[in-house]
Amino acid sequence: MTIAFRSKILWLASTALVAWTPAAQAQQSTGGSSAAAARAGDEDRHDDDVVVTAQKRTQNLIDVPQSISVVSGEVLEQRHATSLIDYAALVPGLSIQQQNAGESRIILRGINTGGASPTVAVYIDDTPFGSSTSQTNAAHLAGDIDPFDVERIEVLRGPQGTLYGANSLGGLLKYVTTAPKFDRLSVRAQAGVETVDGGGTGWSGNGVVNVPLSDTLAIRASGFYRETPGYIDSVGIPATNINHSASYGGRASLLFKPSDKFSIRLTAIAQNIRAHGRDTVDVDPATLTPITADPFTGAPGKGLLRYQTLPEGNRVDYRLYSGTLEYDFGLATLTSVTSYATLRQHEDIDATPLLGDISPFYGASTPYGTDEPSNISQKKFAQEIRLTSPKSDSFEWLIGGYYTREPGQIYQLYRPFNPATGAFLPEAGTIPQDLLGPGVPAAPFPFTHFLTAELDSTYKEFAGFGSATWHVTHAFDITGGVRYSHNEQHTTQSLGGGFVVVQGADGTLIGNSSEGVWTWSVSPRYQFNDRVAVYARVAKGYRPGGPNLVPPGAPADYPAQFRADTLISYETGVRAETADRTFGIDASVYYLDWKNTQITTTFQTSIGPVTADGNGEGAKSYGGEVTATLRPIHGFVVVGSVAYNHSELKGNILVGGSDGDQLPYAPHWNASVSADYDWALSGRVNAFAGASITAVSDRPADFDAAYQGTFGHRLILDGYATVDLRAGIEMKPFTVSIYARNLTNSGGQTYAGPYGGSYAGLIDVAMIRPRTIGLTAGFEF
């Protein structure tokens, strides 16, 4: 392990900290079963009960002049979709990069260059969730909220900087939760069991109760527990189904509405994710073929394998508390949204492949591995106040202000363990004299820890925004908006332990940054009739920059701050359906111009190569999405969608990207088709059945200079297709359903780790879940 290599790893760990870790209103039943009648991907549905809040006011979908997909809660239950990666196939242009339960990166229209800062914002109702800054690895920790009792999910493609601000330059994913109802007491519950091919058995249970306490006060509470079976075995230290996980939590909401003019809604959400092993297998780096035996001993294994000498795990906890107050003054409605949220992660990572044998630090003769327990804490207080005009046929407007304060911390402890047994070793030691560098006292240096790294950060943002819609005629309107955002950031990094003594980097570094950004949007729309409209949209979004920590011996051009990157989108689209609603189409085309793209770069310093955040020349992305819906007979719905995306990096970047390269995890094509049919068997008995096929084309992994230098090309993940089946019977109030996901057992790969990050020169790759067969039963009163 050379000094230069150790320096790079140290600063990857301490600056990015875990740098090798990658990120409709309920549709009503027209037949019997609401689950069967739900329409997958039916975002072009055009009757009055399909509403969205994309522009922070309730609107019918046809009135929204931008590209948006809506997935109802019924569709999510019908598809047994319980996480981001499950329902990504329902939304054209949406990709999820996931290597572990609780660690996900959301990508829309290919806007991704890697790194630790998100390009898609996540909202729960009107509340932003997740950190706004790269200082707490926010890109890898997108809120993977369990969708049970969610009314719908809205996915807005393209920059949303005017109304939603930071990190929405690629788009927005918005969970709309079900509000308490005043009309009746209701109870719903469901239980299920499933088994995965080559793995274990899991189970789930959930329930929700709605209680009207009076004509003006109602409460709704839900809870869930889900045990997801594992299917990966480990060699090295043998274990089976190591990647099993659990997710559990609940949601409670209290609604007080004493009049049509005034309401207060209080909501609390808690969710815990417990992953007992990583969702990745080891593969040959040249062929991406999964290993079939222990790479060191040759002992054969069975099924999907991962080499490990230390059990790894991931724990993520979400908490969100919010209050929304609305008062209608007549001339305008005042809305105040106050929220406090936390996200905490604890992850154990085997860092041995990156750091190598650390036994020389302890004067030991047998190899030492390195365990890296990492703790990330994100806290977010947010306040938004806005005034919204009443609905009007001539002119509508909205103005508002926003404030957020986000303290964050990453703390890492690197500790030795015995690779042969997985047992932890004493952390204290004494560095032998032959490892000490110039200027260090001649006597051997004692230390308490091998390495500790802590990064504390604070992000504050103030913003003012406004939008307006001018109805030029009854058919033609123009919507425009503007926002100014100003943020200030402060970071403090502390390093300690014997490792940094040898590096000569012991101590504390401080970084600060401040910047303001304007964003805007203009959207003309023409509506031919109640069911046909066309629109165009030009919009700007941004992602905050931030401070870099300047190390000792840094060159003069080392950036103390990296700038915000901005994106301008040019888009046009059409929504249309026939008068009898037997056919509908929703289509859009776009061009995205991404400037000052945030990238990772490397500088030579007196302590070796050091990584830092920087800005590249930019990137571009263009393409289109089409969704078509066919209803040839009552109860039978066919939905097909296809998305094309072409993305290119501008200029070269040191981490392995070259001018013209396709952006990471941005497939050229993804497509899906589904068919669902429900019919009556008798008076109170209905049946439903459906099938779906989804496909995604080849995708490049993250930019990786080491891989490209070794193999002469980027790492490309092959395209794949999946087939899902579902069927069930509803005998009111009971429902029973069966399902098969990934029926053909496709071995699609969704993520690849960095070259050099795994044992024996292998690469870790995440794969879609093998064939899973399950059964659910539920009731509703």
Automatic annotation (TrEMBL):
Location of this chain's protein in the cell: Cell outer membrane
Domain (TonB-dependent receptor plug) ranges: 61-171
Source species: Sphingomonas oligophenolica
Domain of life: Bacteria
Main location, first listed in the record: membrane
Gene3D superfamilies associated with the record: TonB-dependent receptor, beta-barrel domain (2.40.170.20)
Keywords, ordered alphabetically: Cell outer membrane, Ion transport, Iron, Iron transport, Membrane, Receptor, Signal, TonB box, Transmembrane, Transmembrane beta strand, Transport
TonB-dependent receptor-like beta-barrel domain sequence ranges: 277-743
Family note: Belongs to the TonB-dependent receptor family.
Protein name: TonB-dependent receptor
Disordered: region residues: 29-48
Leader sequence residues: 1-26
